[in-house]
From TrEMBL:
UniProt protein name: Sodium:proton antiporter
PANTHER family (alphabetical): NA(+)_H(+) ANTIPORTER NHAS2, SODIUM/HYDROGEN EXCHANGER
Subcellular location: Cell membrane
Entry membrane topology: Multi-pass membrane protein
Domain Cation/H+ exchanger transmembrane: 13-412
Claim: Transmembrane helix is one of the keywords in the record: yes
Superkingdom classification of source: Bacteria
Species for this entry: Deinococcus roseus
Keyword annotations from UniProtKB, A to Z: Antiport, Cell membrane, Ion transport, Membrane, Sodium, Sodium transport, Transmembrane, Transmembrane helix, Transport
Length: 423
């Protein structure tokens, strides 16, 4: 099967799963297609017992669409840019301190909490895994997935303040999480220079600054250049093409410059979404640009979450007990609660955050495809890769299906609480 054929099958399955969800399940699109994808995967396994072996065919399809490459070097740039376009920068600027604290410090705290607790958990189950690897798991699972979170916010209609904090955190902690993962991976795998290479504190700081700060600065520069180009013309087709080139060319150039592509796309998207839409686009252009990027966002979201549902076909569950998989979920949720709870407690009075803020940030902090993609980026020859991948997949599925379906009542309570404390 060729790559184009595999992608055609994937898009066809996405359309079918979206139809089944809309016709029978009537769940939110991302949750619905993930669930249908999981059901389809289970049915494929069951049919194998009846003599209809579709597992090799399905695995061949997934093998031709490498999840890590498809997301991290393909559609992620589009999804992050589209998500940033819809963020109110004025409100985000007002609450920049909570966003920064949650995106950076909470992600770091969560990484070490999950890493430490997972290390202890694995030892309880008789598995000896180096601490750097559990820390790697903490880094890839700590960031909330902006793709899943932003879709949730669109449906929830939360107050602008809370929406900006949650959206800003998910957009920025994604890039921060990728950088932290890269740093820990460099320590675990020798930074690509062989075992003899000493990856020290100066290297860590340099890598972090280059990736994170470099990504934000680079995204700001290309975003502003695109803004100047948009402002100099008034024709929606070339202007639309400029935004597409900004995403595709900017993300590719970010990789070549070794700066964070995700953070660059967020910075560029915020500039185009605020200054570009306001000062450089006519009403006609703004309408077409908004429609195009909303369509891209919804289409790629659906394809991504179908792929998440089907990825279970590639997992090797041998030697990994169900109690261990289930026990990993509360470890991640508890670490999330503690890592966001402390900053919210410190900032509560200054920003009039309700007592439900921590609960909403915890339960609404969904994980998604980025965590799976990072787990898949661990070298295949590494003996710990499959364990980390299985644990990641379990947390992601729980996050999407359980948290995603039950967070709405919690958000409604949070809205009521916010209305009581907000002047």
């Amino acid at each position: 099967m060729q790559l184009l054929d595999a992608f055609a099958v994937l898009v066809t399955l996405t359309a079918l799963f979206a139809y089944l969800n809309a016709r029978f399940f009537k769940l939110p699109p991302t949750i619905g297609v993930t669930l249908v994808g999981l059901i389809a995967s289970v049915l494929i396994f069951l049919l194998q017992g009846l003599g209809l072996n579709l597992v090799p065919v399905a695995r061949d399809l997934l093998a031709h669409i490498d999840f890590n490459t498809f997301l991290m070097q393909g559609i992620l740039s589009f999804l992050l840019f589209a998500g940033a376009l819809g963020v109110d920068v004025d409100v985000l600027r007002k609450y920049r301190t909570p966003v920064l604290v949650l995106a950076v410090f909470s992600t770091l705290i969560s990484t070490f909490l999950i890493g430490g607790l997972t290390y202890l958990l694995l030892n309880v189950f008789g598995l000896s895994v180096p601490f750097l690897y559990t820390l790697l798991f903490g880094a890839l699972i700590s960031p909330t997935d902006p793709i899943a979170v932003l879709d949730l916010l669109k449906r929830a209609k939360v107050p602008p303040k809370l929406e900006s904090i949650i959206a800003g955190e998910s957009l920025f902690n994604d890039g921060v999480g990728v950088v932290v993962f890269s740093v820990i991976a460099a320590l675990a795998f020798g930074g690509g220079h062989g075992a003899e290479h000493a990856f020290g504190g100066a290297d860590i700081l340099k890598l972090f600054l280059q990736e994170a700060i470099g990504g934000l600065v680079f995204g700001g520069v290309i975003g502003y250049l695109a803004f100047l180009m948009l402002r100099s013309i008034d024709s929606y087709i070339p202007e639309l093409l400029i935004t597409v080139a900004l995403v595709m060319g900017g993300y590719a150039l970010a990789r070549e410059l070794h700066v964070s592509g995700p953070l660059a796309m967020v910075a560029a998207g915020l500039i185009i979404g605020q200054q570009g839409r306001r000062d450089a686009m006519s009403d006609v252009t703004r309408h077409h640009v908004d429609q195009f990027w909303e369509m891209i966002d919804q289409l790629l979201n659906a394809v991504l979450f179908v792929l998440i549902g089907l990825e279970i076909l590639l997992l090797d569950l041998q030697g990994i007990s169900l109690p261990l998989m289930l026990a990993t979920v509360p470890v991640v949720v508890l670490s999330r609660y503690l890592s966001v709870g402390f900053p919210v407690l410190l900032l509560k009075k200054r920003y009039t955050l309700s007592r439900y803020t921590t609960r909403i940030l915890t339960w609404g902090g969904l994980r998604g495809g980025i965590a799976i993609a990072l787990a898949l980026s661990i070298p295949p020859a590494d003996s710990e890769r499959n364990l980390l991948l299985v644990l990641t997949y379990v947390v992601v599925v729980f996050s999407i299906l359980v948290q995603g379906l039950t967070v709405m009542p919690l958000i409604r309570k949070g809205q009521q609480a916010a209305m009581k404390v907000t002047p």
